[in-house]
């Protein structure tokens, strides 16, 4: 009951404040941006974490192998989520205009504020795997209990500057909270922060270089294209190509591993009588 209440406060305090003080229209813009930030958590971190969870449970008494599996999980998540969010940051205006409609354009500033947060949260949410796979759910509850008042306070402070203020204040506080959360969770398994950074920096460099390249391409080459749809399509396709090219140079091991896993999944699906990979996913940890 207590955990459910804390989760409710974390997820809804900002909505309540925006709806009460800024109105339904502002709430709609904010929710649109927030849901986009959750994309890597919903479709990347949760799926990959669900696959890793059974292995982490089995390896909790072998910390060396446990840490390798955990870091491997974070590396794969970063490879997918980092370019997703950095790319969205660059094409936010075009994306909103084409996909959501021009009437949602006031949400683009909040989207850009939350994109880096989406990258960080895609990794930060994996601490739940550590707490649950090692049986430290009480520690998780106590940590969440301590962090929730600061998260709610960030909404209270930021609301006076509108939805952009709430997003900025939340981003600052959650960055601090995330760092402490990682340190606490890593203490359970004896993992150094630099070990996490060592498996993330390649994906981060590739994603940021891709974003910078797409921005230059958009401003220099595509600026004369009036229609947003072909401009967005050109940016997305070029961004994907640039990221893959950079990954072959900087992050080849991760790219090759994903290709191998993809082929294995296809082969398993073809060998299965139902046409689906055999076995199921163990529920992972949601944000």
Describe this structure in words.
- This protein is mostly helical.
- It has helices at 2-21, 24-37, 39-58, 63-100, 108-124, 127-133, 137-158, 162-189, 193-221, 228-250, 252-271.
- It has a domain at 2-190.
- The longest helix has 38 residues, at 63-100.
- The chain starts with a helix and ends in a 16-residue tail after the last helix.
Quick one: overall form?
flat
Elements, N to C (H/E): HHHHHHHHHHH
Low-confidence stretches: 274-287
Q: What structural class do helix, strand and pairing data support?
A: mainly alpha
For the biggest sheet, the summary is: none
Distance between the termini: 17 Å
- Give the number of DSSP strands: 0
Helix run count: 11
Mean pLDDT value = 87
Radius of gyration, in Å, reads 20 Å
Helix proportion range: over 70%
Strand content: under 5%
Write a short abstract of this structure:
This protein is an all-alpha fold.
Topology:
Layout: H1 2-21, H2 24-37, H3 39-58, H4 63-100, H5 108-124, H6 127-133, H7 137-158, H8 162-189, H9 193-221, H10 228-250, H11 252-271
Question: What descriptive keywords fit this protein?
Answer:
mainly alpha, 287 residues, 83% helix, 11 helices, disordered C terminus, flat
């Amino acid at each position: 009951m207590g955990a459910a209440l804390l989760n409710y406060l974390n997820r809804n305090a900002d909505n309540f404040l925006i709806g009460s003080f800024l109105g339904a229209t502002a709430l709609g813009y904010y929710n649109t941006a927030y849901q986009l930030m959750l994309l890597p958590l919903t479709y990347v971190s949760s799926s990959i974490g669900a696959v890793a969870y059974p292995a982490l449970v089995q390896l909790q008494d072998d910390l060396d192998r446990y840490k390798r599996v955990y870091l491997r999980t974070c590396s794969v998540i970063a490879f997918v989520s980092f370019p997703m969010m950095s790319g969205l940051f660059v094409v936010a205006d075009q994306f909103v205009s084409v996909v959501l409609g021009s009437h949602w354009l006031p949400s683009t500033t909040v989207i850009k504020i939350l994109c880096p947060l989406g990258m960080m949260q895609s990794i930060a949410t994996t601490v739940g795997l550590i707490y649950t796979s090692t049986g430290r759910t009480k520690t998780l509850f106590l940590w969440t209990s301590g962090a929730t008042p600061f998260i709610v306070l960030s909404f209270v402070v930021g609301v006076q500057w509108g939805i952009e203020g709430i997003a900025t204040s939340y981003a600052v506080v959650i960055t601090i909270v995330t760092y402490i959360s990682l340190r606490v969770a890593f203490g359970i398994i004896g993992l150094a922060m630099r070990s996490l950074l060592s498996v993330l920096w390649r994906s981060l460099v590739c994603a940021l270089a891709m974003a910078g390249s797409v921005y230059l391409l958009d401003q220099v080459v595509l600026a004369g294209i009036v229609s947003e749809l072909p401009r967005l399509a050109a940016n997305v396709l070029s961004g994907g190509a640039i990221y893959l090219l950079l990954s072959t140079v900087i992050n080849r091991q991760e790219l090759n591993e994903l290709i191998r896993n993809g082929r294995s999944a296809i082969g398993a699906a073809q060998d299965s009588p139902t046409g689906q990979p055999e076995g199921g996913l163990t529920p992972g940890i949601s944000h």
